[in-house]
Design goal:
With 268 residues, the chain is mainly alpha-helical. The protein is 58% helix and 0% strand.
Length: 268
Amino acid sequence: MKLTLLFLLVLMVSCSKKSEQSLCEARDLYNQYEEWKLETFPLYASRKNQAKRHNTFFYETEENYARVNKAQKEFLNKASKLQSQKECQNEELNLALFKYDLEDEINDYPFEMHFIQFTSLGGPHTRMAQMYKYIPLETVQNYRDYIERLSKIPQYFKEVKNLSLKGVAKNITPPQPTFQDYEKSFLSIAEESPEKSSFYQPFLNFPEKFAEQERVELSQKALQVINENVLPAYKDLYQFWVKDYYPKLRTSLAAIDLPQGRSFINLK
């Protein structure tokens, strides 16, 4: 989810005008939106060090994307109502930028680009492998949540595959020519030993405050989950890519060849 840098800067500057804005509920709306994002997108919450969501994912399903779209429209409607209120005149720019970001997301939804889960720059398999870099791992519970999240990678990949195949059925796929040697990005992870896996990196250097017994327990559990859940899921996703998905990608590079390609290009 994106929030423009300009919006954040303006928001910071305008904090000094509290007395003028005391009757405007815009800031409550911004806070509600942030809370909604933290609750809806667990990886975003992890980046923000919100520990309550460290153990799960935003599952890539049509239903979840529809829920996101519905919620965004509700936030947009609330922002539009505030924008028309006299009490919110000093928040006019912030509200306009807030609405701009929401409208951008909402306008993209009908083109169903969420069916494209893989790009030439990477995909869910590369994102998961780098996950440990931005998840706070400061407490024993943080580590346990991280292990639990790893155990859910097979289910996450299952949803990715289902959504991708629905995209194939709708002729919404990325261009095949941009994926030369792409299968290597799966195998480089799937064929690693658990101990050398990127998923195991956090268990090589624990916080000093951890007891030895805790370190042993966490390390053993992580190796088990990586070996029994994560690496098999990667091998399965590789087979999916090679046999079920890559051969069915569109051969054209032009976005205009997507079902709503011309409208999509005009929007952008």
